[in-house]
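Homework help board

Subject: predicted structure for assignment chain

Our instructor gave us this sequence and asked us to write out the predicted structure in token form, then describe one feature. I got the tokens but I'm not sure how to describe them. Can anyone check?
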Amino acid sequence: MYIQELALNNFRNYGEVNIQLDKGINIFKGDNAQGKTNVLEAIYLCATARSHRTSQEKEVIKWNEEAAHITLDVQKRTFNDKIDFHITQKGKAVAINKLPVAKLGELFGTLTVVMFSPEDLQLIKKSPKERRRFIDIELCQFNKLYYYALKQYYKVLKQRNNALKQYQQNPNPDMLDIWDMQYVEYAKEVIQRRSEFIQEINEVAKKIHANISGGKEDLEVVYEPNVLEANIEEKVARYRQKDIMTQSSSVGPHRDDLKFLINGMDVKVYGSQGQQRTVVLSMKLAELRLMQENLGEAPILLLDDVLSELDDSRQKYLFSYTENIQTLITCTGVEQSVWNSQKVGKLYNVVKGNIY
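My token output:
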């Protein structure tokens, strides 16, 4: 899989730009705040229907403009797709091959990406919410059933919380029973699919991490569900009175977390910064491998100013995975490791919203 052409119109600081991408390594070089990351953000939006930088997509619209538009041509093994992504002040709309997409979930799988940025290096230190987001974004890209289960789960969670807030003024246990039944149904599916995914990524990341560390470190990625699939029904019922008092749902996968262990020790607590970065690198490369295995072709790798955060050995290991994978790199200066790794396809200079 690779992107042939990308066109941006009134997206962030770009007025109108059209670029042809190489199948291999594409480097976007420029000073800070020139628009390098905006290119990767546009591609990420076309893959996941959301920005990795903001929850308010209207922020991507260029100042004083009404709408932003992204057009992207992606070539796959046997066919190609054209994605049109339109963002207005009121919302977003997508068309694939000129056919409007009724539900954004239908976009998943058309274009698959793995994004790696300096913020990701803080994955271990960040809040559980960020680790859940990591799981969800990757799972949604190659499992539409998970996307729909997750969407329904959060929809029912919102409705259940609303019912809990209204309960003291208008007690209605029958209504709560209805929401609880749906809540448990979707929660079970989310928990099951997350558990299976973490088992898969753990096996792959463990091998990668052992190679990077020269066999000195054993990585284990542990799924920490807030509640087990087998007893969620009983636990939701048991905590109902507490939930009525707090007016929120205390049990469910919206409170899940991940733990990373090296040689049995919690990396968040005991790991050095270098170990934490190696764990995140292992996870990203495991994502790449899993997507390739599940989808039958490699995703596109987006490296947003991450090379300067990795030492030479980690950079070298990262590039060992980019062979036959379209890779887009943003940087303020071209690292020597890029030139040493393999032939660079194209080098772009980005200056004040212009790409040369």
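Reply (TA_rk): Your tokens look well-formed. For the description, you could write something like this. The mean pLDDT is 90. That's the kind of observation they're looking for.
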